[in-house]
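Reviewer 2 asked us to include a model.

Predict the structure of this chain.
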Amino acid sequence: MDYKYINQLLERYWNGETSLEEEQILRSFFSQICVPEELAKYRPLFNYEQTETKTDRLGDDFDERIMSMIDEPHEIKVKAQPIHISQRFAPLFKAAAMVAIVLTLTQAAQFSFQSHDAGNTAMPGSYSSRPVQGVSVALNDSAHLDSMKKAAMEAVPQQMEQHDISMLK
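Predicted model (structure tokens):
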């Protein structure tokens, strides 16, 4: 089937040259069940009236109702609510709290990342970068004690010999 007339009408429709009767012809053509495949893409454009639900229209008395609402004198009563000083300064309190938190966290971060000298007693020795003098676990080791006793026993005869030599002089 040849659709030259429909194609001509579509061309005139896109140029804005169609009359209302020609647009009605296009609407009735695209409302048919059998529409050629190359023209099927235009079907939603011309079937919108049938597929879309009808929108609510404003009644004839709409203008009258609006005008009567405008003309009626309305007294608007506004009750003033008192604002307490705590409500007024609440944003400032919140800001001060945030500043205090940020400063505290900054100070804590500086303190934890800062290297401290061994004389500083504010930090425990486990956090210091330098070793701390104190009791060694190795002093309680039995092998170490045995070697200390042996060294002490060897030192006693040497001291006696030196004592005897110094007496002879």
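The chain has a mean pLDDT of 76. The helical segments are 4-15, 20-30, 43-46, 48-51, 62-71, 85-88, 90-113, 142-168. We have added this to the supplementary material.
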